[in-house]
Design goal:
The protein is of the alpha/beta class. The N and C termini lie far apart (40 Å). This is Membrane dipeptidase.
Length: 327
């Protein structure tokens, strides 16, 4: 991939000084399946450890995704993914580490290591057993979404309505997540499940990788009412880079969603949730994570000031983590 045009020094300075946090990346699927060695820089996919470093990413949420086809062995599947991460971390301790607090994120950033937050995508990972939530918590998981696109035993997903929102087990899972100070992720929920989740929980919640439905109508995106209530609760929405959800494979479309959501929610409630390695194809001017400084330059060019850009790049996500985790 040819290098892009040189960025303005001011943009590079803002990007370097920010604590950059991405709320959603599916790279662990590649790691567990041994499809490629992510310790080596390549042009495959959107990310690997060298490109994450090049892109200035300090904190990365690695999704532990359980596909609905594997729901009947969900806990075994998430255990495989956790085991794969543990092997990766043990072999690359100088490069990355699992974190469960903002203090640890800051410590690893200062040491030049990638801070990894483990997050379950699809509560089918629990295998219908509430006690499995404590088990994954003990292994370092600190964030979870109840569903993927499909409905499961916890709630309805964005693309399937079966239960009419949360199930009784879904409510118990949310209650236990709050007891454990885990971050609740509402991406992939149906709208009814979203509102049920708001009614059951307290404090800030996140949508790790969702966009504005007003700009790109899609069941996976959030309407203005949903965006506003998340802001009132102190939460954040991570802007997804997937072209289907932005309206086209261009950085300009991502910037459009950041600008719109900042207007509706306030910029202190907008974050990054790239979904890199969770979709095929490329975004022009943001082809992979190494090009992330282009996003910073684009935000500054759109009129966002340096402080606001720094918050969107990671400060807003860190604020929510600190409030939920307590440290």
């Amino acid at each position: 991939m040819a290098p892009g045009p040189a960025l303005p020094p001011a943009a590079l300075s803002v990007h370097r000084e920010a604590t950059v946090v991405d709320l959603h990346n599916d790279l662990m699927l590649e790691v567990q399946a041994a499809k490629r060695d992510i310790t080596i820089r390549s042009s495959a996919g959107h990310a690997d450890l060298p490109r994450l470093r090049e892109g200035g990413v300090d904190g990365q949420c690695f999704a532990l995704f359980v596909h609905p086809k594997e729901a009947d062995r969900g806990f075994a599947r998430v255990t495989e993914l956790l085991d794969a991460f543990d092997r990766l971390a043990a072999a690359n301790d100088a490069v990355l580490g699992r974190v469960t607090s903002v203090a640890e994120i800051e410590r690893l950033q200062q040491a030049g290591r990638l801070a990894v937050v483990l997050a379950i995508e699809n509560g089918s990972a629990l295998g219908g057993d509430l006690y499995h939530l404590d088990a994954v918590y003990e292994r370092g998981v600190r964030m979870m979404s109840l569903t993927w696109n499909n409905s499961n035993g916890l709630a309805d997903g964005a693309m399937e309505s079966r239960h009419g929102g949360l199930t009784p087990l879904g409510r118990r899972v949310l209650n236990r997540m709050q007891d454990l100070a885990m971050v609740v992720d509402v991406s992939h929920l149906s709208e009814k499940s979203f509102w049920d989740t708001l009614a059951v929980t307290q404090g800030p919640i996140v949508a790790t990788h969702s966009n504005a439905a007003a700009l790109t109508p899609h069941p996976r995106n959030l309407n203005d009412e949903q965006l506003r209530v998340m802001a009132r609760r102190g939460g954040v929405v991570g802007v997804n880079f997937y072209p289907t959800f932005t309206g086209g494979p261009a950085l300009s479309r991502i910037l459009d969603h950041v600008a719109y959501m900042s207007k509706v929610m306030g910029p202190d409630h907008v974050a990054l949730g790239s979904d890199f390695d969770g979709f095929d194809g490329r975004v022009s001017d943001l082809e992979d994570v190494a090009r992330l400084p282009n996003l910073t330059a684009g935000l500054l060019a759109r009129g966002f000031d340096a402080r606001t850009v720094t918050q969107i790049l990671g400060g807003n996500a860190l604020r929510v983590f600190r409030e939920v985790w307590g440290r």
